Amino acid sequence: MTTLNEALLVIGRRLGFPVSRGKTVARRLQETARLPSGAPGKAPEIDSSDFVTLLLALAADTELHLTVEALDRLAETVPHGVDTAVMPEGIRLPPVTARSYLETLAWKAASDDPDLQSAVSKLKIEVVSTWPEIAIHFPDGDITRFRQTGELAAHWGDARIRKSITISGAAFVDAVRDLNIKD
What we know:
Helices cover 43% and strands 14% of the residues. The protein has 183 residues and is of the alpha+beta class. It has one domain. The strands form two sheets. Strands 3-6-5-4-7 form a five-stranded antiparallel beta sheet. Strands 1-2 form a two-stranded antiparallel sheet. The longest helix has 13 residues, at 19-31. It starts with a strand and ends with a helix.
């Protein structure tokens, strides 16, 4: 099993997030029960869901006291802001959130199937910190934007400048493989 410290080191090395910032964000997430705390003499162990939680919190690139709120808003975004709950039952899609999508990408990256790993490594994961949005860039130029329910995905989400962090799919795969997280 992977410890939280190992995950922070790999995230720092592979994805470029400062380890010192990762430790303070992880502590904040542990205080709010978003990450496991471990036990006396035992380091906290994380799974792929915890890895995604930590990655989203770091990519949110917000002030420490706003990290948990930003994480929750990002994790619950949906593809193109579509509210599937109001769809007629005959065409209703199962709910997909950014968190579940990224957990699926982590599962594919951890698999032993080189085709799945290759598909993930060709993606770019863009996390917008100005407003809650995650954009998945595909190699063919298609973009799936995860926005809050009811938001228009193709519209500017705020009056401020759009600030985002882009994570290479190849670096994401390398980080998951280095951590050897399999669920």
